[in-house]
Amino acid sequence: DELLRETGVKPDELDAVAVGMGPGSYTGLRIGVSFAKGLCYGLNIPLLAVGSLEALTDVAIKDYEAGIIQVEGWDEAFLCPMVDARRMEVYTQIFNSRCEAQSEVSAEIITEDSFSQWRAKGKLVIFGNGAAKCQEMLPDAIYINVAPSARGLVRLAEEAFEAGRFEDIAYFEPFYLKDFVVTTSKKKLF
After folding, report:
1. Beta bridge partners of 19
2. Is residue 79 within 8 Å of residue 64, measured between CB atoms?
3. Do residues 81 and 90 lie in contact, with contact meaning Cβ atoms separated by under 8 Å?
4. Distance CA 140, CA 78 (A)
5. What is the DSSP secondary structure assignment for residue 75, as one 8-state letter?
6. Each residue of 142-174: pLDDT tens digit?
Protein backbone atom coordinates (compact mmCIF):
# COMPACT_ATOMS: atom_id res chain seq x y z
CA ASP A 1 0.00 0.00 0.00
CA GLU A 2 2.80 2.39 0.92
CA LEU A 3 4.73 1.65 -2.27
CA LEU A 4 1.64 2.11 -4.43
CA ARG A 5 0.88 5.43 -2.74
CA GLU A 6 4.49 6.64 -3.16
CA THR A 7 4.53 5.80 -6.86
CA GLY A 8 0.96 6.87 -7.59
CA VAL A 9 0.18 3.46 -9.11
CA LYS A 10 -3.25 1.97 -8.55
CA PRO A 11 -3.53 -1.80 -7.96
CA ASP A 12 -5.62 -2.26 -11.13
CA GLU A 13 -2.75 -0.75 -13.15
CA LEU A 14 -0.43 -3.66 -12.30
CA ASP A 15 0.25 -6.11 -15.13
CA ALA A 16 1.73 -8.87 -12.95
CA VAL A 17 3.49 -9.53 -9.65
CA ALA A 18 7.02 -10.95 -9.49
CA VAL A 19 8.38 -12.85 -6.52
CA GLY A 20 11.74 -14.40 -5.64
CA MET A 21 10.98 -18.14 -5.66
CA GLY A 22 14.01 -19.31 -3.66
CA PRO A 23 16.06 -20.95 -2.48
CA GLY A 24 16.13 -19.13 0.83
CA SER A 25 14.58 -18.93 4.26
CA TYR A 26 11.56 -21.20 4.58
CA THR A 27 9.49 -18.62 6.42
CA GLY A 28 10.58 -15.69 4.24
CA LEU A 29 9.79 -17.58 1.04
CA ARG A 30 6.44 -18.74 2.37
CA ILE A 31 5.38 -15.22 3.39
CA GLY A 32 6.61 -13.57 0.17
CA VAL A 33 5.00 -16.12 -2.13
CA SER A 34 1.74 -16.11 -0.15
CA PHE A 35 1.53 -12.32 -0.36
CA ALA A 36 2.31 -12.32 -4.11
CA LYS A 37 -0.25 -15.07 -4.78
CA GLY A 38 -2.88 -13.16 -2.82
CA LEU A 39 -2.27 -10.00 -4.85
CA CYS A 40 -2.38 -11.91 -8.12
CA TYR A 41 -5.56 -13.74 -7.18
CA GLY A 42 -7.30 -10.59 -5.91
CA LEU A 43 -6.29 -8.50 -8.93
CA ASN A 44 -6.65 -11.36 -11.45
CA ILE A 45 -3.12 -10.82 -12.81
CA PRO A 46 -0.27 -13.27 -13.53
CA LEU A 47 2.34 -14.42 -11.05
CA LEU A 48 5.98 -14.39 -12.16
CA ALA A 49 8.64 -16.35 -10.27
CA VAL A 50 12.35 -15.53 -10.44
CA GLY A 51 15.18 -17.58 -8.97
CA SER A 52 16.56 -15.79 -5.91
CA LEU A 53 20.20 -16.58 -6.75
CA GLU A 54 19.78 -15.33 -10.31
CA ALA A 55 18.15 -12.13 -9.00
CA LEU A 56 21.03 -11.60 -6.55
CA THR A 57 23.49 -12.07 -9.41
CA ASP A 58 21.59 -9.53 -11.50
CA VAL A 59 21.99 -6.99 -8.65
CA ALA A 60 25.75 -7.68 -8.56
CA ILE A 61 26.04 -7.17 -12.31
CA LYS A 62 24.10 -3.91 -12.17
CA ASP A 63 26.25 -2.69 -9.25
CA TYR A 64 29.40 -3.53 -11.23
CA GLU A 65 28.09 -1.75 -14.35
CA ALA A 66 27.20 1.32 -12.24
CA GLY A 67 30.70 1.41 -10.71
CA ILE A 68 29.42 0.65 -7.20
CA ILE A 69 31.63 -2.42 -6.98
CA GLN A 70 34.93 -2.95 -8.75
CA VAL A 71 36.47 -6.28 -9.60
CA GLU A 72 39.47 -6.64 -11.88
CA GLY A 73 38.82 -9.28 -14.55
CA TRP A 74 35.04 -9.19 -14.00
CA ASP A 75 34.18 -10.27 -17.56
CA GLU A 76 35.93 -13.63 -17.13
CA ALA A 77 35.02 -14.16 -13.46
CA PHE A 78 32.61 -16.74 -12.10
CA LEU A 79 29.92 -15.17 -9.94
CA CYS A 80 28.84 -17.14 -6.89
CA PRO A 81 25.78 -15.80 -5.04
CA MET A 82 25.18 -17.44 -1.67
CA VAL A 83 22.23 -17.62 0.68
CA ASP A 84 22.93 -18.71 4.24
CA ALA A 85 21.45 -22.16 4.94
CA ARG A 86 22.69 -22.41 8.58
CA ARG A 87 25.83 -23.90 10.03
CA MET A 88 28.48 -24.10 7.28
CA GLU A 89 25.96 -24.69 4.50
CA VAL A 90 24.89 -22.28 1.74
CA TYR A 91 22.50 -22.35 -1.20
CA THR A 92 24.43 -21.35 -4.29
CA GLN A 93 24.79 -21.44 -8.05
CA ILE A 94 27.58 -20.34 -10.39
CA PHE A 95 26.95 -17.70 -13.09
CA ASN A 96 29.14 -15.95 -15.64
CA SER A 97 29.32 -12.15 -15.85
CA ARG A 98 26.33 -12.13 -18.25
CA CYS A 99 24.06 -13.78 -15.64
CA GLU A 100 24.09 -17.10 -17.50
CA ALA A 101 23.92 -20.13 -15.20
CA GLN A 102 27.03 -22.28 -15.27
CA SER A 103 25.79 -24.80 -12.67
CA GLU A 104 22.60 -25.99 -11.06
CA VAL A 105 21.31 -24.61 -7.76
CA SER A 106 22.76 -26.62 -4.89
CA ALA A 107 23.17 -26.77 -1.14
CA GLU A 108 26.89 -26.80 -0.36
CA ILE A 109 28.73 -27.42 2.89
CA ILE A 110 31.72 -25.07 2.80
CA THR A 111 35.18 -26.67 3.05
CA GLU A 112 38.64 -25.71 1.75
CA ASP A 113 37.84 -27.71 -1.40
CA SER A 114 34.54 -25.97 -2.14
CA PHE A 115 34.23 -24.64 -5.70
CA SER A 116 37.76 -25.90 -6.52
CA GLN A 117 36.84 -26.59 -10.17
CA TRP A 118 35.66 -22.97 -10.58
CA ARG A 119 38.58 -21.47 -8.65
CA ALA A 120 40.95 -23.42 -10.91
CA LYS A 121 39.32 -21.95 -14.04
CA GLY A 122 39.43 -18.30 -12.97
CA LYS A 123 38.38 -15.72 -10.43
CA LEU A 124 35.50 -16.67 -8.14
CA VAL A 125 33.46 -13.70 -6.91
CA ILE A 126 31.38 -14.56 -3.84
CA PHE A 127 28.54 -12.45 -2.43
CA GLY A 128 25.28 -12.68 -0.51
CA ASN A 129 24.50 -13.35 3.13
CA GLY A 130 26.28 -16.72 3.06
CA ALA A 131 29.60 -15.30 1.82
CA ALA A 132 31.04 -14.61 5.29
CA LYS A 133 31.18 -18.36 5.94
CA CYS A 134 33.71 -18.76 3.13
CA GLN A 135 36.26 -16.05 3.88
CA GLU A 136 38.51 -18.16 6.12
CA MET A 137 38.11 -21.35 4.07
CA LEU A 138 38.45 -19.77 0.62
CA PRO A 139 40.91 -16.87 0.94
CA ASP A 140 41.69 -16.89 -2.81
CA ALA A 141 38.12 -15.87 -3.74
CA ILE A 142 37.01 -12.25 -4.20
CA TYR A 143 34.30 -11.05 -1.82
CA ILE A 144 31.94 -8.21 -2.62
CA ASN A 145 29.04 -6.72 -0.70
CA VAL A 146 25.78 -7.32 -2.57
CA ALA A 147 22.42 -7.53 -0.81
CA PRO A 148 19.16 -8.92 -2.17
CA SER A 149 16.98 -6.26 -3.75
CA ALA A 150 13.70 -6.16 -5.65
CA ARG A 151 15.61 -4.45 -8.46
CA GLY A 152 17.20 -7.84 -9.18
CA LEU A 153 13.78 -9.15 -10.16
CA VAL A 154 12.93 -6.45 -12.70
CA ARG A 155 14.78 -7.57 -15.85
CA LEU A 156 14.21 -11.26 -15.16
CA ALA A 157 10.51 -10.76 -14.42
CA GLU A 158 10.10 -8.67 -17.55
CA GLU A 159 11.68 -11.45 -19.63
CA ALA A 160 9.33 -14.01 -18.03
CA PHE A 161 6.34 -11.74 -18.66
CA GLU A 162 7.26 -11.19 -22.33
CA ALA A 163 7.72 -14.95 -22.78
CA GLY A 164 4.40 -15.71 -21.07
CA ARG A 165 6.09 -17.78 -18.32
CA PHE A 166 3.35 -17.35 -15.71
CA GLU A 167 2.98 -19.51 -12.62
CA ASP A 168 -0.22 -21.28 -11.63
CA ILE A 169 -1.41 -19.21 -8.66
CA ALA A 170 -3.17 -22.16 -7.02
CA TYR A 171 -0.32 -24.64 -7.23
CA PHE A 172 2.91 -22.64 -7.28
CA GLU A 173 5.23 -23.33 -4.34
CA PRO A 174 8.57 -21.74 -3.50
CA PHE A 175 11.79 -23.59 -4.32
CA TYR A 176 13.01 -24.55 -0.85
CA LEU A 177 15.80 -26.83 -2.11
CA LYS A 178 15.70 -28.77 1.16
CA ASP A 179 12.79 -30.09 3.17
CA PHE A 180 11.71 -28.06 6.18
CA VAL A 181 12.51 -29.94 9.39
CA VAL A 182 10.60 -29.18 12.58
CA THR A 183 12.56 -29.73 15.76
CA THR A 184 11.57 -29.55 19.41
CA SER A 185 13.06 -26.66 21.34
CA LYS A 186 15.67 -27.66 23.92
CA LYS A 187 14.52 -24.78 26.14
CA LYS A 188 12.18 -25.71 28.95
CA LEU A 189 9.36 -23.18 28.49
CA PHE A 190 6.91 -24.54 31.08
Report:
1. 49
2. no
3. no
4. 13
5. G
6. 999 999 999 999 999 999 999 999 999 999 999
